Amino acid sequence: MIIAMRKLSYPALRDSLDRKAKIIVLSCNNCARVYGLGGRAGLQAVADKLEGDGFNVIRRELIGFGCALDLVAKRRKDPATKDWFDQADVILPLACEHGQQTIRMAFPDKAVPEVSKTVGIGWWTSETVRLTHCVSGVDLTIDDPQGMTLDEAARRLGVEPGPF
Amino acid sequence: MGVCTRLRDLDRVAKELGSSELVAVIYCNNCVRACGSGGEAHMTRISQELRQRGVRIEDEILVTNPCCRQFMEDHDFGGAVKTVLLVACTPTAYAFQTIHPEIRTVVALDTIGLFINSKAKGRVKLAMAFPGYEELQGKEFKLGDASTMYDDEQIVAVEPTEVSS
Prior knowledge:
heterodimer, A: Rossmann fold, four-stranded antiparallel beta sheet, three-stranded parallel beta sheet, 7 helices, globular, B: alpha/beta, Rossmann fold, five-stranded antiparallel beta sheet, four-stranded parallel beta sheet, 9 strands, elongated
C-alpha cells in the first residue's frame, strides 16, 4: 500500500481556503483510508471541521481508488455527480500525491490544494501501519526490519500523520 | 492499486529458490494486475516456468491484498515449507517475516515505483520512482504489462493552482 502524510495542519488548510468558495471534499477510500488521511472517517473529520468553521462544503465524495484517473474523471460526467462538480470552486483531495494529480488532471479548472506528501509504501494490519520503503527523494532511513510506524516517520519528516 | 512492479528474471528467482526445499508461492492479486507482473492471470504460467527450472512448488496461494498482513495470517504452511516466494511488492516480505520469521522469503518482483492509471488510455504512468529507478519516472507503460514502455507521454500532469482568492 502507498503511504502519504499531511503537509498541512488543519489551521494551515483553513487559512488557505476562502469561506465563500464551494468546496467538495474528495477522498480516496483505498490506501488513504488505511493511513488515515481519508476514507469515510477522514472525510467526515475534515468536512465537519470545515463546516463548523463556516466553510461551504457542498459535497462529501468517496472514491474507491484516487489513483485511477478514469474513476476521478467519471465524476465530471456522471449524472449523479456532474452538477456538484460543475459548481465547485475547490476540490479538497484526501489522497496521496497521485490522487491529487488525478483530480487536477480531471478537473484542471478547479483549485486543488496540495494536501499530502507521498512518502513510500509499506504493510498494515488493523492495529498498525508500517512504512518500509521510501520513494526517491524522501530522506528517511528505515532500520527496523518490520518497518517504521507512521508517527515516527512523520516526526522525522516534519509532516503529520492521520486525518485533519 | 498504485505500486508498480516488474517480474524479475525467473532464472535468477529459481536460482535463489533452489531445488532442494519445498516452496510455497504467495501471489498478490492487487496492484500487480495493472502491471502484469503477477495476479490470478499469471500465476499458472509463473509457477509452471519455475517448476521447469526445478523449483519444488508445494503450494500456490492467491491473496487479494497481501500488504494487509491479516490476509496472510491464516495460512498454515505445516512445517514442510521452508521458503516462500512472494509474487508481490517488497513490503509484503517484511509483513510476512513478522508472521513467519522461520521461513525464508524470496521476492519475485522488482518494486520500481508508484503509478497512476487510465483504463481508457490503457496505460499506467510511473508518477514516482524508488531509488535506482529514477530514470523511469514519468514514463508510461501498457496497462497490464509494465514491461512494455511507451516513449511518448499522453497522460498529462497538471500543476497545482492557488486555492485562496
